[in-house]
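To close the section, here is one more complete example, presented without commentary so you can practise reading it yourself. The ligand is zinc ion.
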Amino acid sequence: MNYCSNCGKPVKLGTPPGDDRPRHLCTACGTIHYENPKVVVGCIPEMDDNILLCRRAIEPMSGKWTLPAGYLENGETVAQGAQRETLEEAGARIEIIAPYALFNISYVSQIYVMFRARMLDDHFEAGYESSDVRFFSENDIPWDEIAFTVIKATLRQYYKDKPTGSFPFHMGDILPKSRENAGEY
Ligand SMILES: [Zn+2]
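Output:
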């Protein structure tokens, strides 16, 4: 950040009194610009024994498969965000079954909140950010072509729980530069 979003004057890095870390401070109007983690919301859209995956049409990880997920918008609940992202990326209407997993990705300041969801009908289509959308059964999941570690961790947990018929809430951490690292609490 170089300029104040409040008044347009230059900002500098400094630790405000009583704070314990540097912030962007406006030299003119005094605004302290706090930066906090972003929340990504998404879901596992189920229909019968299949789930819906999207093939990414945009970078990063263009061409790889992922679950519908994206940044939560202001004014949205996490469930509304997951429904909106699923409609935008997969053209699918869902109802939320339950919150399923939370992953901290602290090294990029992101928090993923993933739901289990039921498709309301069998309609789907690739949205702007997707080049393809398809149903997959467990045996067809393209494990080597899943876009992000956090999505792979969500899917691995899901297929671990599925045979038990019980889907408890999971919380884990995604760490940098390793693959199967969703350490669970
Ligand atoms: Zn300012």
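Once you have examined the tokens, check your reading against these statements. The CA atoms of residues 150 and 174 lie 7 Å apart. Residues 4, 6-7, 9, 26, 28-29, 31 surround zinc ion (CB under 6 Å).
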